[in-house]
Write a structure and sequence with these properties.
By secondary structure, the chain is α/β, with parallel strands linked by helices. The chain contains 19 helices and ten strands. An eight-stranded mixed sheet has the order 3-2-1-4-5-6-7-10, sandwiched between helices. A two-stranded antiparallel ribbon has the order 8-9.
Length: about 475
């Protein structure tokens, strides 16, 4: 073991422990610290025994054990706990040392911490880490941003422990300034919400409408995972459908239908609202979880409010193919919306994001990893300034091919009273985006009528605003015009 450790890590929960083991397995020497020091002893004498991992019983001991420039990674609960640990570390660190926050932190907090620590001569990196327990141990996707001066110091460690794709390409690269890394991880998690909800809606339609058993749905997911929908989430959904409870029944059918969430999906939607980006699919995925949590109300409502009886008398295989196309088309929309959100955030914050590179960081290790991300990388390689993924030739052709089946599925869900919010909202966005003219002209007239908010005219240049005295009593005074 080296005299000084390459890096120290604070926080021995699931992700922290497994990242330390990953680093040690790749040849790095790591110091582990946890506020509860008995956890450190248990780890050092258990999973870490015999590896290049040393324990520290205090923050002072942790810092003293590190090679210069010192690199300290925090894997603690986002929010006040991160600030508290940073406050304790500041007096122990020297100029040029590095603090890394690897938790699911809201990106404005990372913006603030980068500026705060820069004043003290300490470099701060906010990095998204995705892949769960298995990814942390064997190779996660890592999305670092913050003080770019620190990147050369942490790059060898991060790229070594990250997942690898297409030979030896690491699913880790510098994302951008300030909170860019945590922003990209937040969007990743929002897209994850959408992907999961799409698969759940497909499951519900196959079960409630077509009448497939869990084993039959397992076979469908297994087949889908061989084509365009090849992904980690489809793979685990396939396996879940086949998993049996102790009594031999499908375990999935014995799980209460209320979904939890930790807030990253909500953050993604809030960011979209602040930037004026129509992130409709992810928004519906977040609200679907909220609705699922209202279990008692839904049970009561089911006894009072009725809808149509689900009846299926068509061709099973034909509908399942339509459903596959609908899920894939909606998935394209979700990623297109997510990339628009990243583009607008980059403009707002002055970040320099590599959109194709982000797709490759998500290509392996992370929860949304899929073959589909390679097509996104190719789209941005061809056209770095691409406004919307739906305009790329590959994706526009796929959407065109899927459109008829997608509409049949949306119609079937509506006519049979089966909630499919992400499939349907994605179709509405697709139809709205491809429309040369939307009814917002009437909306602007309404706003001008009741609030003198003004409007632009088709026969005048953009940026010139007009107000009409609709009632003859309003006068010529108009409200201030602004765009959110």
């Amino acid at each position: 073991m080296k005299t000084k450790s390459d890096i120290g890590l604070i926080g021995l929960a699931v992700m922290g422990e497994n990242l330390i083991l990953n680093m040690a397995n790749k040849g790095f020497t790591v110091t582990a610290y946890n506020r509860s020091t008995d956890k450190v002893s248990h780890f050092i004498n258990g999973r870490a025994k015999g590896l290049t991992i040393r324990g520290a019983d205090s923050l002072e001991a942790l810092v003293d054990s590190l090679a210069v420039p010192r690199k300290v990674m925090l894997m603690v609960k986002a929010g006040a706990a991160v600030d508290a640990v940073i406050e304790q570390l500041i007096p122990l660190l020297d100029e040029g040392d590095i603090i890394i926050d690897g938790g699911n932190t809201y990106f404005p907090d990372t913006n603030r911490r980068v500026a705060w620590l820069r004043e003290k001569g300490i470099h701060f990196i906010g990095t998204g880490v995705s892949g769960g327990e298995e990814g942390a141990l064997t190779g996660p996707s890592i999305m670092p941003g913050g003080a770019v001066e620190a990147w050369p110091e942490v790059k060898p460690i991060f790229q070594c422990i990250a997942a690898k794709v297409e030979g030896d390409f690491p699913c880790c690269d510098w994302v951008g300034e300030d909170g860019a890394g945590h922003f990209v991880k937040m969007v990743h998690n929002g897209i994850e919400y959408g992907d999961m909800q799409l698969i759940c809606e497909a499951y519900q339609l196959m079960k409630q409408y077509v009448g497939l058993t869990a084993d039959e749905i397992h076979q469908v997911f297994a087949e889908w995972n061989k084509g365009d929908l090849d992904s980690y989430l489809m793979e685990i959904s396939r396996d879940i459908m086949a998993f049996k409870d102790t009594d031999g029944t499908p375990l999935v059918e014995n799980i209460l239908d209320t979904a939890g969430q930790k807030g990253t999906g909500k953050w993604t939607c809030v960011a979209a609202l602040e930037l004026g980006v129509p992130l409709t699919l992810i928004g519906e995925a977040v609200f679907a979880r909220c609705l699922s949590a209202q279990k008692d109300e839904r049970v009561a409502a089911a006894k009072i409010i009725s809808g149509p009886e689900s009846t299926f008398d068509g061709d099973r295989q034909a509908f399942i193919e339509d459903l596959r196309q609908a899920v894939f088309a909606a998935k394209i929309v979700s990623y297109a919306q997510g990339y628009v959100l990243m583009r607008e955030a980059a403009k707002e914050h002055g970040w320099h994001l590599n959109y194709g590179g982000i797709a490759m960081m998500w290509r392996g290790g992370c929860i949304i990893r899929s073959a589909f991300l390679g097509n996104i990388k190719e789209a941005f390689d061809k056209q770095p300034g691409l406004a919307n993924l739906m305009l790329d030739s590959y994706f526009s052709e796929k959407l065109q091919a899927a459109q008829a089946g997608w509409r049949r599925v949306a119609a079937a869900a509506l006519m049979n009273g089966i909630a499919a919010p992400t499939i349907n909202s994605a179709l509405s966005y697709f139809d709205g985006y491809r429309s040369e003219r939307l009814p917002a002209n009437l909306l602007q007239a309404q706003r001008d009528y009741f609030g003198a908010h003004t409007y632009e005219r088709l026969d005048k240049k953009r940026g010139e605003y007009f107000h009409t005295n609709w009632t003859g009593r309003g006068g010529d005074t108009a409200s201030t015009t602004y765009d959110v």
